[in-house]
Specification:
By secondary structure, the chain is of the alpha/beta class. It contains four helices and six strands. It has helices at residues 29-45, 58-71, 89-96, 114-120, and strands spanning 3-9, 51-54, 78-80, 105-110, 135-140, 153-158.
Length: 162
Amino acid sequence: MAKTLFILRHAKSSWAESNKSDKDRALKVKGISDIINTARSFAQKVNTLDLIVTSSANRAVHTAVLFAETIGFPPQKIRIEPMVYQADDQELVEMIKRFPNDCHGVMIVGHNPTLTYLANRFLADRIHEFPTSGLVGIVFNVDSWSEISPEKVKTVFRSFDL
């Protein structure tokens, strides 16, 4: 059975509170509505999601929770992974290759520029910049996450134009 990687950039966040650290920034109202719309669109087209792995940054966790609530995804299947916050794309690939094989659809919620680099490892039509609340789905023709590679990409879809 194929494996599907969903890459989701956190929703639009606020820079207004200068006393907060980058990790503690909150979502803007527009970001909240954008991620709800992305999740609704996802729910109409996709029926395979087994796990959400999110950065530990407040804006990423809030994005993951809103996404899950919107599609009726169980919150106990959201895993907060601190390394995603500052990981580079190679570290994310190594993490992905260790996902449990009984999970056929896994979503990573994280940050730019790392998500752009991660997606571009597998896409023929490269992304210039991953937009906030943007989603890319990559279906790999593999039985094990450890086998993912650009050569194994079967299908790609995205929620935004290049």
